[in-house]
Amino acid sequence: MKKILVCLITIVVVMNLSAQVEGTIQWRPEIDFTYQVNGEYVEISSETGYVDEPGMPQIPYCVKTFLIPVNAQPVIQVKYVNRKLQKKDVLLYPVQPPIPIGESILSWVEPNSDIYNSSNPFPGKYAEIVSDRMDFGYHLVTVRFYPIEYIPKQRELYTCDIAYSLTFSMAKKLASTSIIEKQSEYLSQLDEDYIRSIIDNKEMLSEITPNIKASFRKGRLGAMVSAAEKNANSDVDNYLPEYLIITNEALKDKFRILADWKTKKGIPAIIETVEEISTTYTGSDIQEKIRNYLVDVKRNYGSMFVLLGGDTNVIPARVKKSRYSKNKDWVAVDFYYTCVDNGNWNKNGNNIYYEADKIDFEDSKDWGVSFKLGRAPVETLEEAEIFVNKVIHYEKADLNIDYSYINNSVAADAFISKNENTGYLSNEKRSEIASFYSETNLNRWLIYDHYNCKSNIATCSNKHSVYEDQSGKGEELNKVHFVSALQNGGNSGLNHFHLVYHMDHSSPEGMGTSSKDKNESISNWDVDNLNNGYYYQIVMSGGCSPADITKDCIAEHFINNPQGGAVAFIGNADTGWANEHVHLGQFLSELYKTSANATNRYDLSILHQKALENIKYKNLKLANCALHLLGDPEMQVWSDVPKTMNVTLMPASLTTGENMIMVNINGLPQNETARICIQKKDELYIVDQLANGSHTINVSVQTLGVVNITVTAHNFRPVERDAQVSQNGSESTIAVEDLIYNDKGTGVSIGNGDGQLDAGETIELTVKLRNTGNSALNGVTASLISTSDDIEIVNANATFGNIAGNTAVRSVTPFVFKINKDSGEHLRNNSSGINLNLQISVNGETKIQPLKIDNIYAPKIEIGNQKITWTSNGNTTVEAGETVKMNIDLMNVGQAEATGLKAVLISNNLQVSCSSTPIVYPSIAFSETKTNTIAFQFQTSSSYAGILSFTLQVSNEYGRTWNFPVNPLSRPSVIKTSTLDFQPYASSINVYWTPVKEVAGYNIYRSDNGENGIYRRLNRFPLKAAYYLDDSLAERTLYYYKVAAISTNGNESEWSAAYRTWTSYPVVSPFPKRLATGVYSSVSCPNIADVDNDGKQEIFWIYEDRYDTHTSYIMGFRPSGEELYDIDGNVTTVSGFVKTPTMLTGQVAFGDLSGNGEQNIVASTWEDDKKYQEKRAVYCYSPFDRDGDHKPDLLWEKRIPYSMFQSPVIANLDGSADGTMEVIVKSHQTSDIFILDHDGNEVRRLNPNVHVTNGKDHNRSALTVADLDGDGQMEIIASYDSLGIYIWRQDGTPFTTNPFWGAGIPRLASAPVVCDLNEDGKKEILFSQRQMAESKVFAISLDGDKTVAGWDGSQTIPYTVNAVGSTLDHTLSVGDINNDGHLEVVILGHETVKAWTHTGKLIFSKSIKGLFPQENYASNMNTPILADVDGDAVPDIVFCCNNYIYALHNDGSDIIGFPIISDEKFLDTPCVADIDNDGKSELIAGNEHELYVWKTDGVPTAIEWGVKRGNPQNTNEYFPTVCQPTLINSNEVWDGESPCGNVVLQSGRLLIPAGKTMVLNKTFSVIVRSGAVLEVDGGSILNARLVVQKGGTVIVKNNGLIKLRAGSDFDMEKGAILDFSFGAIDIP
Fold first, then answer.
1. pTM across the whole model
2. Which one is predicted more confidently, 424 or 859?
3. Which of 292, 501, 1415, 1504 is deepest in the core (most CB within 10 A)?
4. R_g over Cα of the chain
5. 3-state secondary structure string, 1322-1387?
């Protein structure tokens, strides 16, 4: 569609007070917009943005940006509107929400009835200012025009010719932070070029200047480094810096290499460290300190290139809530560092940034761009070296590769949405993406979903829209093709790819490659294994979160790949939108200059900036701040194959003194220039822009050595030459080698002797001169001349005498200068740095050399707290007729020590008199606060009326003075601890509180030695925000904090009461995990098992949607956080292990149902609603996908007519030798207990058969299964309230008689626990009561009178009573929690935890506020976990309570580091296990929406009760050890031990040699997988069952023996191999 937008702009300037921009907006149908019928609606299509509020008529608008003076206040006025009726009876399409790349098509949003039934014109305005900001020092105003108007009720559509006037008056006051003191000429040119490209009144650019005081080619500022790193008269220092790297001390040297290269090619670069920033700048956390530093950088240097040199552990990211409301992750926003002109993104002063427009920021003002910023996401020296080498080699194009790859680009595009019912695929941008390449010189390769899939092909017909690429240069999108293209160009026939574009579902850990259609993606592992060598790529992805730097994201893996990967990555740190494919178009348009609004720049930052801009926003806003640049922002991007520049440089060598360098350049494109940089270390630095032709550059060289000459131009390889400098025999050459300062108070100097130059000091300056020639210089003298009002020369002359060749001497006597006492700071690395001129006389000649003197610092005193310490009547209350003493704190915020301080207190009130005697203060160093050495004293008269008003006059030893108002009675209110909160981390604590209005800031104090310990102030400067991130703390340690508010007069409130906090356990990344779809939540607890036989345990957890769809997800995660399956084909989301058509709860059960070594996952339905009763079932899943649908196989589904609140139990009930197991489930709606075989067939039902009608024959308590009598077969135990405890044998007959015990005891409704409590070799049963004010804990034996010694009914615990719908079960756990060899019993109750010995003696009773509350529907089902978490090898007691996870020692005392705090409630039991086999246990728990994993110090052998039901099978029987399979993955020799569990040969060879025996228990097997070999070479396997799968091999030789147990099998699949010609297999 050809677009002609008629916009007539006229500029009218009236004097210097006001001005205006006038114009007209005219839109025409079929030119500026078109109509499309979409069902009953009409859509207006335009290349502009649209009204974006869902449900509103989708009206397009156009956006224009205007440049106005920096101090102007703009107003948009509509002068007149000419309306033209275009259509009648038009029902406009309602706006739909943007489609996130991570969701299918969102629910349809109906038209807003209020709007669509209104006769008011929509949108009801013709123009509005949407942005009024400062970009790079320019004042820009963006206006949105609405040239189409809709009358909804009448369904009439109009076009509107809009005549407008943007007027502005010079009334706006500039903030001091907005003013740029100095900026390099080059940066100014770049900024002007950018501004020209985005404004619509380009003719004003020459009339309106940016907010820069001075733009210099030369002027100083070489490096933000210590003086020791620079020579005194560095010529590099005379260039303003253009490139800044912020990193830490550890990585600084690696990034110095990059800084040196930038400087060498003519971009002066400086480095600053986080450590230095942290000690120098104010802020509540390091992020705020870095931003405050950048505010100074912007003010002093302008719009520099800024590289954040490190991942978020080096340069922490500010985080915000996702722009997509359903994404609950906190996402990084490096624009916090990019935009520093206005605001601080935390206007309300709390600890949450970017909360909302008008709350924390002004969306229309605060997004002004200040820097050209990128990030190097590196953590180690090795990664930093990789990054730096990639950038330098990319820019130099100096590697031995075929650089024709620069002209190659690949684009991958997938269908974003899939209708789960019809399978219809939608939301792709194949045609648009292909069109972006049309005006470039790129060789494109398109990897598309259903590439050229025609409508007559069955897989495409009616499955999606049809797109055909006539070029045929493309292929089908899948993982293999995409990885192959990244690797070496793949099937394209092209030589690798330079530019890579990707649009599909993504996540921090992966990028989709047809995720919806084919369920494929690439992972971090795939990127790590790319070996594309030096064919470095620039990758752009529009997917969700591939550049989420808060995680180990895939973008980092591209950049940090040492064998190739990418040199830069542009991608979202947040949710991506499906329509943001336009980023690629804008990127290519800027790089290949296909738009009239392109700049003349090729740096990576401009490409990123232009990619961010779009037709909708035209500028940065909260809605489009997701796209981040990971890479060097100044890196020049190739747009064609690198060429060799035709440059001639003469002469080849130079001499000391004056030189003339001849430069001849040919072959540059018309109107383009080359950049030449001439550098001799820190002595010489010249930068210039040269066009084709011959040029002469005058160069003065003082010392011998090498001059580096570098010439760069776009699409040309840099030319680097080294010119050797030799001695010019006829020229005397002398150079300043060093400056030595004396401020020690010796000689005539006056100062504090700290070695730095401070305001007011008198300095002796000794200059060291070097004769750089070979001939002696005689009678050298020099004079010092000041160029600053802040420097007074006291002794201007010095002699040096004779200086031999190549020798350095000091001045015989020092120069002396005095620094003005009122001087401000003058920093060498700042535009305020001071030059002195040194006039050197030698051999009758006079030379002047500038001396850049060291930093000059000044003290800056601020008043602090004013406190009454004594009154004559002793009550410290100021009353009439009293003498009063007072202390006044002073703080020094200047970097010079304040010395010789004296202060005089002056009363401004006739009712109060003061002594005029000066009071002395000790010296105050930078950032320190000190109080007076002797109290200030004043007297109140008898007429004193309660008002105090003083002035404090402070002076230092040099006579500098400060005056402060003083009123000790005016101070803020105390901050209440009830307003404090905290978030603990492993080594830091974020303390935050409710912001207090009308205060100047806060102080925070910490005690490391208890609540009543010594409190030390943490903040060097007053905090502006109501939080403080206290880092570098000891792990799992208690800390106490007190907070005080500071008034505007410096007074501090009384400290808050002590607030108790602690450092916690680290969360294992990338947890927490959250289901991304729907409105699912969880009231379940995790369970764990090694389901894939990798030796590590996987985590399973259940979500349910109990209010809408009544469906559930079973989640399955590896210890690494990776999902076992990506069932929705969307790597962006956490999608679950399986989705069930009905609702589940509790936890899954695990068991090898078929005895084949495969752990099955079994879950049962919790669905009380009769509407869904047909869906009630038990589900059994395999952990493997054998049918190829990318989902785990559903092995069977058994319909059950009742809802099952409790989880299934798995056990080998009959003790069958084949190892098969049964599933036992219990309903809470009936008394039936269902027993299913391993195939899901019902074996039998158990029932008390008491036929009561009061509901006492069923409840919500869980089953227990155990072999009570040691006969090898299991019993089933259930509690039935007042009916008592029932026990059945596995065949359905009663264990003895039923009820077995407890008939008539009310509310016996808990899951029984089976263990040998009294150590008599027999098993006992323990249980308790529910919904009782005092719940009894019972222990019964299996014979006699069923009593257990010591358990007499006195063991009780408060519980929940009279609460509707609560106390569904009451569970306990047992284990040896004190390593005394005996079992203890632990149970939770109402705000109480209790533990008893095995003899029933109370060990402790611990109060826990909020535990098992008296609330309706508070199910109160948490079970205490007994496992070591603090590393002392003694089991601890771990449990959940609301938003907390507690851990107690075995005496009930708290474990430091607990409770762990969540922002949502934990509704069921956690678990503890060493899931990753690293020798330390993990703590796993799920709150209402997220699954967490914490790394503890726990010893895995000290786990007594690790999961809710004691073991993964949910049997509720105590086992000292939970058997895990023995996994064989390599060649091993059996050691003769008896295994606990199956022996699974997955690969390699297991040898059982002579003399070694493997004895299996009665239910476990040896399983030989494909490719594995079991070799019984003279040894034996007893009590065996063998399963040999296809491709597996069993060899029995040298009289080896395999003796099968009775009733077991030797199962060999077809294709298995058996060789036992020299051994025996004994089959009973």
1. 0.86
2. 859
3. 501
4. 39
5. CCEEEEECCCCCEEEEEEECCCCCCEECCECCCCEEECCCCCCCCCCCCCEEEECCCCCCCCEEEE
